[in-house]
Amino acid sequence: MQIVSQWLRLGGVAMAVSLACAAGAAQAQINVGVIVSTTGPGASLGIPAEQSFKLWPDTLAGQKMTMIILNDGTDSNMAARNTSKLINEDKVDIIIGSSTTPNSIPVVEEAGRQGVPVITLSGGKATVMPQEGPRTWAFKLSPTEAISTRRVMDHMLKQGKKRMATIGLANSYGEGFLEVVREIAPEKGIELVAAEKYNATDQSVTAQVLKVLASKPDAVFILSSGTPGALPQIELAERGFKGLVYQTQGVANNDFLRVGGKSLEGSFMTVAPVLVADQLPDDNPTKKAGLEYLAKWDARYGAETRSLFGATAWDAMLLTEAASREALKTTKPGTPEFRKALRDAMEGMQGFVGTEGVYNMTPQDHNGVDETSQVLVTIENGDWKYVE
Predict the structure, then answer these.
(1) What is the DSSP string of 175-199?
(2) CA-wise closest residue to 325 among 337, 335, 333
(3) Which CATH number covers residue 115?
(4) What are φ and ψ of residue 162, in 5° steps?
């Protein structure tokens, strides 16, 4: 596999570096474009994803593969430019990315307009919903906000807690979760007593946390992604909050654990089961795939560096390979027909088992996972511990 990666210098100048060179590509070679955030606030999501892509063999569905990896610097404008480059210059058959929801939206819009399928690595439903226009070319692997939110609220209720406050990013990821929280809270009998927002680049959330504490919540649900998700939790701990704290799987990586430190102890989050695959009951349908992936990751990078976002990237490649096998039955890579066949094959995936869930795609649902795509974990002694 030929892998070409791009890093952004501080001045915004891009440098392309060939990491591995392959012999002359066969005519049937599949070109895969990847856009990840390996610098900026989304770096803790993008770096492990890039590392997972480098675990892939040099073939895809029996064909040689070239993978072109570009860094968007957690900048949506750069994500859009990268998308245009991958399609118009590199002639990719499929794009995987980006790492965050705000960056994935322009990727989906541009790729969809040009008839190139996209598998987004981000968690926001805005990348695939509503299923119309460019979004009919987009697929998402992370579960819906509703699946995560229901699991959080069910756990709250089991603890006898009914007053929730939220602190979320002021972007499409945080807004998507807040919208769902507001929809589901009344049916669960939970009162939303405060809903504060902050930016990923903010250095302080003191004002927001003071407003949350004034509302006297039983639990705080932090709607964030990457290391910025640690900021509200650190502030809550410093202010002596003794209630329950929940996070989304958007923060599930070791950088988050490192930044948050002891402030995270005893908190909860919903995550894809692969993060704790070795702790899952044997009847969990994703356990086998999760353990196989973790064995590859641990051998290359070490168990202490495990990240949920690496697993999302791995599932994206598994799905791409399965779709490519179907598309190759009727057409050749490098053509509009192949790209359309890839899209159609993914849309028809049923019972596809990945590390993060079992995918059953339909024309109305380009996510395709159910409640088995999320488990509840707690943070204990600086590590993830399976709860339910």
Answers:
(1) HHHHHHHHHHHHHHT-EEEEEEEE-
(2) 333
(3) 3.40.50.2300
(4) -135, 0
Name, in order, each residue with C-beta under 8 angstroms of 15's C-beta and a sequence gap of 6 or more: 6, 7, 9
CA distance 59 to 328: 14
What 3-state class would DSSP assign to 326?
Answer: helix
Q: How far apart are the first and last CA of the chain?
A: 39
Rounded to two decimals, the pTM is: 0.80
Residue 106 counted as domain residue:
yes
Low-confidence ranges of the chain (pLDDT < 50): 7-26
pLDDT, position 255: 86
Judge whether 77 lies within some domain: yes
Asked if residue 281 is part of any domain, the answer here is no
Q: Range of 112's domain?
A: 2-142+293-368
DSSP E strands, the chain? 2-8, 14-20, 30-36, 59-60, 63-71, 94-97, 118-120, 138-140, 163-169, 191-198, 219-223, 244-247, 268-271, 352-353, 358-359, 375-380, 383-386
Q: Are residues 26 and 113 in the same domain?
A: yes
- Does one domain contain both 165 and 83? no
How far is the C-alpha of 94 from the C-alpha of 138, rounded, in Å? 10
Closest CA to 314 of 135, 56, 129, 72: 56
- Joined together, the tokens standing for residue 218 give 């039983």
Is the four-CA dihedral 56, 82, 126, 221 of positive or negative sign? positive
* pLDDT per residue as tens digits for the range 233-274: 999 999 999 999 999 988 888 889 999 999 999 999 999 999
What is the chain's alpha carbon radius of gyration, rounded to the nearest angstrom? 20
Report whether 143 contacts 374 (CB < 8 A).
yes
The span from the CA of 299 to the CA of 283, in Å, is 25
Q: What is the DSSP string of 202-263?
A: -S--HHHHHHHHHT--SEEEEE--SGGGHHHHHHHHHTT--SEEEE-GGG-BHHHHHHHGGG
Whether residue 89 contacts residue 59, with contact meaning beta carbons closer than 8 Å, is answered with no
pLDDT of residue 14: 38
Q: How many domains does the chain have?
A: 2
